[in-house]
Write a structure and sequence with these properties.
Outer membrane lipoprotein wza fold like, about 200 residues, alpha+beta, wza like fold, 2 domains, 3-stranded antiparallel β-sheet, single chain, 5 helices
Length: about 200
C-alpha cells in the first residue's frame, strides 16, 4: 500500500520527475529534507546516480574536492559546493541532455557530511564528527567529549567552509543560548588552551 502511495505521489510531482531523491533496494537511505535543502559543502561525500540511459553507469560516490567540484563521466568537472542536491541534479541533467543523452534521470544524495572539532576536547581520536542534522557549537563540543579542564571556553573559534572565522564565548552561551552558533557540514571548531 505504501509503495502504491509513493508511486502516486511521484506521478503528481511537478516537472519531469528526474530530480527527486529516491531509494532503491540496497541503496543509500533516502535523504532528509534538511539534506535536500541544505547547500553542499567542501568535504561532503555525495552519491550521484544516472539511470534511464543505454550504457548504464555505476553509482558514483565522491567527496566534494577543495575547489568545490566533483568529476563525472563524459562531462568532467562540475561545481557542487554551494548548491543544494536538487540544484546539482538539475545542473548535471542539463550537462548530459541533449549533448550526451536524450534523457537521463539524475539523483544526488548526500552520503556523509562531517564537521571537525579540535583542541582542548576530551575525545581526540579523529576530530571528525558525522553531521546528522542541526547542531550548535556547544552540542558539537559535547559530541567531541566536552571540554578538557584546560580549555579556554571564552574564545572558541569556528572556521566556516568559506574561510570566515567566528568566535563563541561558551561561558556566555550556556546562560544565553542565542549566542551559541549553528554548526554546518565542513565547519572546523577549535577550542584553544586556556592561558594561565
Amino acid at each position: 500500500m505504501c509503495l502504491l502511495c509513493s508511486l502516486a505521489l511521484a506521478a503528481l510531482l511537478p516537472g519531469c520527475g528526474t530530480h527527486a531523491p529516491r531509494k532503491t533496494p540496497g541503496s543509500t537511505p533516502l535523504a532528509t529534507n534538511a539534506d535536500i535543502q541544505s547547500p553542499l559543502r567542501i568535504g561532503d561525500k555525495i552519491k550521484v546516480e544516472l539511470t534511464g540511459i543505454p550504457d548504464p553507469i555505476q553509482p558514483i560516490e565522491q567527496d566534494i574536492k577543495d575547489d568545490g567540484s566533483i568529476t563525472l563521466p563524459y562531462i568532467g568537472r562540475v561545481v557542487a559546493a554551494g548548491k543544494t542536491p536538487v540544484e546539482l541534479e538539475k545542473e548535471i541533467y542539463s550537462l548530459y541532455v541533449p549533448t550526451w543523452y536524450k534523457h537521463v534521470s539524475v539523483t544526488v544524495t548526500p552520503v556523509a557530511r562531517y564537521f571537525f572539532v579540535g583542541g582542548q576536547v576530551n575525545n581526540m581520536t579523529t576530530g571528525r564528527i558525522l553531521y546528522t542534522g542541526p547542531i550548535t557549537v556547544m552540542g558539537a563540543i559535547q559530541a567531541a567529549g566536552d571540554f578538557t579542564p584546560f580549555a579556554d571556553k571564552r574564545h572558541v573559534q569556528v572556521t566556516r567552509v568559506d574561510g570566515t572565522i567566528e568566535h563563541v564565548n561558551c561561558v556566555k552561551a550556556i546562560k544565553n543560548p542565542k549566542l551559541d552558533l549553528d554548526v554546518y557540514p565542513g565547519d572546523r571548531i577549535w577550542v584553544p588552551l586556556r592561558k594561565f
